[in-house]
Amino acid sequence: MTIPFEILRTPAAMRARSEDLRRDGKKIAVVPTMGALHEGHLTLLRAARAQADIVILTIFVNPTQFGPQEDLAKYPRDEAGDLALAKTCGIDLAYCPTVDAMYPAGAQTFIEVRELQQPMCGASRPGHFAGVATVVAKLFHATLPHIAVFGEKDFQQLAILRRMTRDLDFGIEIVGVPIVRESDGVALSSRNAYLKPDERVAARALSAGLAAAEAKFKAGERTAEALIAAARAPLEAEALARIDYVELRDATELTPLTTLARPAVLAIAAFVGTTRLIDNRVLS
């Protein structure tokens, strides 16, 4: 039996609705987003639809994961357009809380996954992952899902949320969905909208570097130095790109590797123009 589509705005209303659905024996999947939906998000929603009775989309531009010099104010917001897209994937409910509902006056509690949050993007964006972990925990408490679906493009985020879910006994299955790419290899991202035409062309250097490193890996290369150098080369040759980091790390613990002998992630963060983009490739 289908349920009428609803938009819920407060944690109490969302939790009450999810409690009713659980009592009815429904399996709930949640897809947390900050809106600005694209095909990558729709792929997550389709994956959720295939695994659950009820799919909840959350849209919340979370201020606590933005640094003081980052793009909170200009982050794209189009709730009506996002919901129209999401409905084509068969969502049942949308949870779209306000900032005041998520962070009442005087809120001062944050969740930190201490070791996993420190390297890579955590080194460049202090406090970012504490904001991510905290808001996702709050979304979990409101939506009460059995399954939560996230994209593998944000690989460090996915590792952190898996660890948080395990460590805090949420009892939620975290599902990672492979990166969705444009025809030229560029990973889909809401921040691609910030790129000027020449920057959009330059953005290909991230995926080109990863593809070059993967080719070396498939040919037998196992040293981190050589794989990282292959990934860096297209970015270093691109005048509009500036590397933040290129690192090879264990795929679960995110510890740095010198030799690839177990599943690993080769991760890139780079500025193209003023826009910071990330991408990765799992090598195993």
What would you note in describing this structure?
With 284 residues, the protein is α/β, with parallel strands linked by helices. The chain has two domains: 6-177, HUPs (Rossmann fold), CATH 3.40.50; 190-283, Pantoate-beta-alanine ligase, C-terminal domain (Pantoate--beta-alanine Ligase, Chain: A,domain 2). Helix content is 37%, strand content 20%. The protein contains ten helices and nine strands. The chain has helices at residues 11-23, 39-51, 79-87, 99-102, 121-124, 128-143, 155-167, 197-202, 204-218, 224-236, and strands at residues 6-8, 28-33, 54-59, 93-95, 147-151, 173-177, 241-250, 264-272, 275-283. The strands form two sheets. A six-stranded parallel beta sheet has the order 1-4-3-2-5-6, sandwiched between helices. Helix 1 crosses helix 6, helix 6 crosses helix 7 (155-167) and helix 9 (204-218) packs antiparallel against helix 10. It starts with 5 loop residues before the first strand and ends with a strand. The model has no long low-confidence stretch (mean pLDDT 97).
